[in-house]
Amino acid sequence: MSSPALVDNHMEKREHIISFRLTGEEAGHIDTASTGSRRTPGDWCRAVVLEKSNQAVPTPVKPRRCPARKLPTFDIQELARISGHLGKIGSNVNQLARVANTVGKIPETAILKIIHGEITIAKDTIKHTLEGGAS
Length: 135
Description:
By secondary structure, the protein is mostly helical. It has helices spanning 24-36, 41-52, 76-103, 109-130, and strands at 5-7, 10-12.
């Protein structure tokens, strides 16, 4: 919750929350604008909305410097592909657990080695993608 702000010469607690989603580019624009105005991104958005609706814009309680948001450098499509693979692996593990619980036996070593290979490939791809590698 944000701290109380001075509004109309008295302290008024901000109790209502409005949230919305942004693209990385939109968030970057807000970060740049808010840093230039010495406001937090949330305070900057509040000030813009109040100004646009012809309301008094309170001065920030405690101006501070906010570092610009670092936009992700990884490939979103690659991460989506990896997420799909992880879903398949999770399904495989669930099936193995069901068989083990029903029959009372652990599946063959060959099947477990295949799943281990899929997990290793997913792990390595995630690591490579997060380090900035292209697919």
